[in-house]
Amino acid sequence: MDYRTALGQIAAGVPLADIAQEAGVSEAEIRRTRLEPTSGFYLPPPANWRQVLAQLAWERAVVLQAFARQLEAEAERAVL
Length: 80
Fold this sequence. Notes:
Blueprint: H1 3-11, H2 16-23, H3 27-33, H4 49-79
Helix pairs in contact: 2-3, 2-4
């Protein structure tokens, strides 16, 4: 794996589409929750946002742990 691929994996967040699906709202609604509250297009976050984001964070943590193990294994092979 090269540096750019590895950095992209670390920097990648959870797509808004995934958040919207888990929260049971549209992606457009999630985008509107990110606006300034003074905006006429602002929507408050879904009531279950904490549970949704916690679940997605735990899922992302599992992916990142596997990724870290892969990088460590590659680093060890590169030294040998």
